[in-house]
Amino acid sequence: MIDCCIFDLDGVIVDTAKYHYLAWKRLATSLGFDFTEHDNERLKGVSRVESLKIILSIGKTELAPAAFELALKNKNDWYLDYINKIGAEEILPGVSEFLAGVRARGIKTTLGSASKNARLILERIGLVDQFDAIVDGNSVTNAKPDPEVFLTAARAVNVAPERCVVFEDAAAGVEAALNAHMKCVGIGSADVLGKAHILMPGFAGVDIDTVLKRLP
Ligand code: B16
Ligand code: MG
To answer: Atom 16 in ligand 1: which residue has the minimum CA distance?
Structure first.
């Protein structure tokens, strides 16, 4: 029995990874090294601070604390330049219909994202009202694969973890869902998300009943 669906944001509801990539690439260039799309895969679902640490290790670069903070600020300012221009056309295929179907069945919907910009993004794409609770990088201290973000999202709507299913596109997010003792649907391929209970490429043509039937 599932009473709550918890959705990751980037890579599940909307593809903001491309904007993160452009902003991180600009930062890497400003620091004098290259950052490729292949490298960017390592940042999915990872917090902003941890992402910068990974990028600096790729560039074999160290920053003093003040420069580290400035780099975080610059990257986020550049990222927001993109985010402030997005709209509903950025919602991934089938997501709006899937969310509406979940809610019509009386199942709660919550967001469980590492992003500190999650609410802004949901506002830009017009989906804030489709969530009973929004838990994001501002509400938690421990990043995925720690289960905190998903446990907080379940608690916000008063649903036991065992009655939640998480939709995730990142390996760290799948780990977090399993650590929370929740069911997990991986959005993507088995090479990255093999530990998820079931996998699907996205939400196009999929409804909640189909997902619930496939879950173990
Ligand atoms: P921000 P998710 C994550 O979102 C992204 O996948 C990850 O690439 C990003 O570094 C992280 O949010 C933090 O984002 O800089 O906006 O706080 O997949 O957990 O929805
Ligand atoms: Mg994600």
So the answer is: 115
The CATH number of the structural domain formed by 4-15+90-214 is: 3.40.50.1000
Residues taking part in catalysis = 8, 10
Q: Write the CB contacts of 13 (distance below 8 Å, at least 6 apart in sequence).
A: 7, 91, 92, 95, 111, 122, 125, 127
**Residue 31, C-beta contacts closer than 8 angstroms, at least 6 positions apart:** 56, 59, 61, 71
**pLDDT tens per residue, range 64-120:** 999 999 999 999 999 999 999 999 999 999 999 999 999 999 999 999 999 999 999
The answer, yes or no, to whether any atom of ligand 1 lies below 6 A from the CB of 43, is yes
In this predicted structure, the answer to whether residue 212 has a pLDDT above a threshold of 90 is yes
Q: Where are the domains of the chain?
A: 4-15+90-214, 17-83
Which of 86, 110, 113 is closest to 11 using CA atoms? 113
Q: Ligand 1 centroid to 200 CA: how many Å?
A: 21
Ligand 1 binding pocket includes 116 (Cβ within 6 Å): yes
Q: What's the 47 CA to ligand 1 centre distance in angstroms?
A: 6
Architecture of domain 17-83: Orthogonal Bundle (1.10)
**Cα distance between residue 154 and residue 180, in whole Å:** 10
Distance 115 CA to ligand 2 centre (A): 9
**Whole-prediction pTM:** 0.95
Tell me which residue has its CA closest to atom 14 in ligand 1: 115
Per-residue pLDDT reduced to its tens digit, 166-201: 999 999 999 999 999 999 999 999 998 999 999 999
